[in-house]
Amino acid sequence: MRIAIMGSGGVGGYVGGRLAAAGADVTFIARGAHLAAIREKGLRVTSTLGDVALRPAQAHDDPAAVGPVDLVIFAVKLYDTEAAAAAIAPLIGPQTGVVTFQNGVDAPEILARVLGAAHVIGGVAKIAAVVAEPGVIRHTGTMAAFVFGEPDGAKSTRVEALAEACAAAALDHEVSADIWRDIWNKMAFLATFAGVTALMRRPIGQIREDPETRAMLRAGLEEALAVARAKGIGLPDEFVATTLAHCDRLPFEMKSSMLQDLERGRRLELPWLSGTIARLGGELGVATPTHAFITTALKLHVDGRG
User: Fold this and answer.
1) Is the pTM of this model over 0.85?
2) Do 275 and 289 share a domain, yes or no?
3) In total, how many domains does the chain have?
4) Domain end (from 121, 148, 177)
5) pLDDT tens sequence across 173-211
6) Residue 231 is among the residues annotated as catalytic for this protein
7) Among 126, 186, 231, 255, the one annotated catalytic
């Protein structure tokens, strides 16, 4: 099974590194200093679940140099989705699957429009990982779980092959019969968590312990749940309660990646998180004042300081 990693940052680098270390034929699509480091020194993954030192590692900046593969793991930032989808056309053969381990809910539809719906596999990555330095992926915490499945819930040989590769690499994984529910379950949490922490410039611990800011956190979750249900997504009645309980178990100083991007002056995924909740709420007649406020308050930061 030939696998290409499009977006070899925290998520893609972690998954690709684990798969390659277990013997899978993996090629990383990267650029700049990260690409140079992978080519020269290989790829390292540091993790409490066990480190990986992958040397040599296959890496290119041009998908055309790789050619058609069996599977593409697609893990670019949301604002790069359309351009990156067009760029991977040389990787796509008649049976190639493209599994998106991105945030938000828009990526599968964008990939379907650019590459064709038959190639798209939905996915959810539950992990905190970053490029610590060129060629080095740092996984923080102990959570590293991956959910994936065909958008129509059907079983397929390509999803089974990915599951087998994950099992061989000891990657915590699940094949989903309702991947849209899993995608929206993460979206409803992440849009709220990212939006509130970025808006307040504070870690989750401070937000959950203050009654008024906790109420805002709850309101964001309730709005996202209402939008999901208006879309026909069957999130459970206890979603808000269980998600708040999950927030209570997170490390006190934990920040969303969007807050970290904001602090570093980088582009934000805001339009595809709270922005999408607010937009869909407007289209579906669901009130989303919390997400609308977050979207407006952070709007001028979306393009970063560059």
Assistant:
1) yes
2) yes
3) 2
4) 177
5) 999 999 999 999 999 999 999 999 999 999 999 999 999
6) no
7) 186
